[in-house]
Amino acid sequence: MGHESRIGVGEAEAGSGRLLRMFGLGSRSADRQHSRGTHSRVSERARLLEAISEFLLRHELSVSPDNLLRAHAIMSGTNPRLAQKVAALEEAGEPITQEWLEQQMGECDSSDTTSSNLDRLARELDHSMERFGESTRSAHEAASDYGAQLAQQTEMVANAKSEEDVVASLAQVARAMLDRTREMETQMKKSQEETQDLRRNLAKARRDATIDHLTNLPNRRAFEDVFKSEWLAAQSEMEPLCLALCDIDFFKKVNDTHGHDTGDRVIRAVAQALDRISDSCHVARHGGEEFVLLFRGLGLEDAEAALDAARERFAARHFVDKISGKAIGGVTFSGGVTDVFAHPDLSSALRSADGALYRAKEAGRNRIEAA
Fold first, then answer.
1. Has residue 368 got a pLDDT over 90?
2. Helix H segments across the chain?
3. Set 289, 290, 304, 369: catalytic member
4. In which band, very low, low, confident or very high, does the pLDDT at 190 lie, cut at 50, 70 and 90?
5. How far apart are CA 233 and CA 264, in angstroms?
6. Concatenated DSSP letters for 156-196?
7. Which of 28, 44, 102, 236 is the most buried (most CB within 10 A)?
């Protein structure tokens, strides 16, 4: 690896050994576990801990709780896409920085936050509807009380000895009814206003949850819904359906050299270029610098050709850093295309397109490969 000069192998081994001993997985512990017939399980855990500690030390990342979780996701393979990106950077001899790692995890954090906000708003709306129902029930109970009081007062009026008694009795009932009615009106108006506000907020949150705010394209959540409807429609009409994954080439270099504002501008430019391919092509931001496309009515060769034409047009453009005035030069993207109906589900189709994208990267980037 190109990072050995920054940290000695001996230091990495020593650090990983210390981490193993912190978890009670040194050689003595392993021997004791072996005597109980569980050595293999301990060895697997020891190898994972060693890989985690070696990864953090090799890239000079802090041993924080967040970084331990991220390193575990990479080394254990529970986040295969992040593991693949890390492998690509390491193979290119580039460091894994704290800033890069946090940027990669930001997409997941944002998605989790959006889902959490939706859940919170839905719960609040439920509670508001419950309160509105309670106010309505109270109004019904009050109306029943009024009826009972009126019946009682009617009987009193019939037996009243004087007009003054009748007037006093009716005035008392009227005052009570008026006070109770005003109280119910206030409660119901407040409940209605709260419910309307929450419904508006929930509707906005649902819209926001389907849009990527950097590119204004649908996000991955929205794409999954589109995929389901387009899959059913294409199957019903016996039309071809193809899926593609695209990734901006050397995007980290653009970010590191020209800053995140320029990187965002590049992402928006690629998003616009892909969105112009065809009205029958659905485009969404899949995360980071990656996009997913769905071609309805185009076979594999035609979808590959359409995406390749967009790639060629975009590669001919030249970008300039608006702040420094320095030329960024040409920006390119690579892509992988697959036939959706050759796979049992979306996950399988995405894996196939991802494999084709990886081959395009391996073959030199700025190209489209079909699965």
1. yes
2. 9-22, 27-35, 39-58, 65-76, 80-91, 98-158, 163-208, 220-237, 251-258, 260-275, 300-315, 346-362
3. 289
4. confident
5. 34
6. HHHT-SSHHHHHHHHHHHHHHHHHHHHHHHHHHHHHHHHHH
7. 102
Please state the pTM of the whole predicted model: 0.55
Respond yes or no: is residue 289 known to be catalytic. yes
Q: How far apart are CA 207 and CA 221, in angstroms?
A: 11
**Cβ(153)–Cβ(169) under 8 Å?**
yes
CB distance 331 to 362 below 8 Å: no
Residue with tokens 């309307």: 196
Contact 293, 307 (CB under 8 A): yes
- Least confidently predicted of 53-57, 204-208, 298-302: 204-208
Which residues lie below 8 Å from residue 10, measured CB to CB, with a gap of 6+? none
CA–CA separation, 145 and 62 (whole Å): 69
Structure tokens at 366: 């700025």
